[in-house]
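User: Can you help me understand a structure? I only have the sequence.
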Amino acid sequence: MNAFTAPEIPWSLLSPALIVLLAAVAGVLVEAFVPARVRRPVQVTLGLAAPAAALVAVAALWSGVASDGGTAVVGGSIIVDGPTLVLQGTIALLALLSVLVVADRTDTGEDAFAPSAAAVPSSDYEELARRRGLQQTEVYPLLLFAVGGMLIFPAAGDLLTLFVALEVLSLPLYLLTGMARRRRLLSQEAAMKYFLLGAFASAIMLFGIGLLYGYSGSLRYSEIADQALQVTGVDGLLLVGAVLVLAGLLFKVGAVPFHTWTPDVYQGAPTPITGFMAACTKVAAFGALLRFVYVVLPDLEWDLSVVLWTVAIATMVVGTVAALVQTDVKRILAYSSIAHAGFILTGIVALDESAIPAVLFYLLAYGAATIGAFGIVWLVRERSAGSGDEPGPVLGEATRLSQWTGLGRTNPLLAVTFALFLLSFAGIPLTAGFIGKFAVFSAAVEGGAWPLAVVGVLSSAAAAFFYVRIIVLMFFGGAGDGADEVTGGAAATVADEPVEAPRPAGTTATATLVEKATATTTTVVGSEGFAVVAIAVCAVLTVVLGIVPSPVLDLVGDVAQLLP
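Assistant: Let's start by predicting it. Here is the structure, written out as tokens:
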């Protein structure tokens, strides 16, 4: 009888993810045992401390990994190498900034989340919860569980760990998407769409994992790659399995044709959660995609290049063209994220070593601008017209383009900061976005994928139109420039209670209803300041990475070597 030998696990190498996951478990216990009056401060402290500690843990591991190139732990299930630490550090930093926006409350004391997410929208119970000031502090442990999954996702060295990390990061996001305080039905619809499509994508990926295991007899990336070098009679299993796993990963990055969930979910989710998803999920998913493509698929380049090229071109073109016709700011940013997914794919598809640091830098630059942009959207609100000199109550986010008219005159600092993020998205020089695009397109050219770089440059030029359109609207727009009637700089009409239209005498009664319109103005709400801090940090990162990118590029380039 053989004795059981306990595996030796270097826990310190797993510390970034372990810190966040343990903090998430502690957050669940806080919900159970901490009194309600102090629950929020405790959860916010945990939510900020966990990613900050994970960032410190990444810094502590950096020198060791930089010297020895990294190592495989837990039997090869987790790969701790240079790209893993760069991605984990980026996720931890962006998560820390996201928690600041999530924790922010307006000067009315309201956050972005429903007082009782389980309540039926517009029900008496929901109104009672709102009047009593209930808060959904469960948001913070859910957020930390998602971050924990994101930290493991790009470090996965086998397909089983990849799938488990995918579910750990996805399930909390499905819940968080449906917890918006305003527009509850739209939020719940977005959560349902995200859950159903995410479940299908997970099933497709799981089917692909099964085929790859059937082909190679292993779940390890390196062993599947070694088996791919052998000539067998079941190569079809390898190709189909690889395509199905790619489909699951491309769903998470929002690439065409797996992008249809993105605009609806981005629009319906609470705005701070939208920023968190757009930045952190994309970093984690592209990290996992980068490792899978560069470790498993190099020997299948000729077989899968047509698929990857088609996806990259379609993603850039569809994201750009669809954004041109949008009139909602959150949907514009959603289609912008789809286009950016295509830009990043140009670097990955090139299969050139120079693409790895380029993609890693691009993800940091894009993530910082994204969190800052959605943080500003969170602060720009509708205000209903009051009586006399008294302003009306503050409503939900002002997301229609017409409502942003004149924002540069009423709130110049906020508008200038938002313009900075838009210029970074457009890839204008002296912003981080320009350096990121230049790096990935250069890598594509070096890897022989110059047609992708040409399409990327043309798409970037076309995308500049809708970014500049918003900037012009904020600083130079006047009444009549938007789709809605503008009142007080940026206004819209909101449906009030319906009233029955008068009918001539002697006619048959009908059920014609006419919406009674109430004018609203656009305002920038005051807050506790957490979101302002996050926006400021994102703006500084966008400028610094655009002006002096060399230190970051050199730091990333020194460790940008994937272990098999």
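Now, to help you interpret it: The chain has 20 helices and six strands. Residues 482-517 have pLDDT under 50 and may be disordered. Let me know which part you'd like to focus on.
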